[in-house]
């Protein structure tokens, strides 16, 4: 977690891939930070990944005042402007940070211990108000 943005959480499934169980753990982290309640529900817009649609996730969301809206496949670039204006540039910045790290650490592999700082450096460049405002809408 060294070098990650403040308030970050770490979750690494054994398989390395997101699962319904891992997503439920993330959902608990999300609820604990957003703290939705009966008077202030939260709308969470997600893609249509299978891990987002398990009965455990949907039940937990419902019981904790989170309304899940699942967008149709291949539409996030139209329905989620940050997907284009923030996360698009993030991919480029992340690759640049990986390249920088590899030049500074020749013949070494990036490990899970390095990813947090590399992510943070790229995220701070991509997640800016200017990029958010530049969204396609």
From TrEMBL:
GO molecular function: DNA binding
Domain of life: Eukaryota
Domain DDE-1: 14-104
GO cellular component: nucleus
Segments traversing the membrane: none
Protein name (Swiss-Prot/TrEMBL): DDE-1 domain-containing protein
């Amino acid at each position: 977690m060294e070098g990650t943005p403040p308030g970050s959480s770490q979750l690494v499934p054994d398989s390395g891939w997101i699962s319904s169980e891992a997503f439920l753990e993330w959902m608990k982290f999300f609820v604990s930070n957003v703290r939705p309640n009966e008077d202030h529900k939260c709308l969470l817009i997600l893609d249509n990944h299978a891990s987002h649609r398990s009965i455990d996730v949907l039940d937990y969301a419902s019981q904790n005042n989170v309304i899940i809206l699942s967008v149709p496949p291949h539409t996030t670039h139209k329905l989620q402007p940050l997907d284009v204006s923030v996360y698009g540039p993030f991919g480029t910045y992340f690759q640049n940070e990986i390249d920088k790290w590899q030049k500074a650490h020749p013949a070494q592999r990036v490990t899970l211990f390095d990813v947090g700082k590399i992510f943070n450096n790229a995220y701070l460049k991509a997640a800016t108000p200017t990029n958010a405002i530049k969204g396609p809408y």
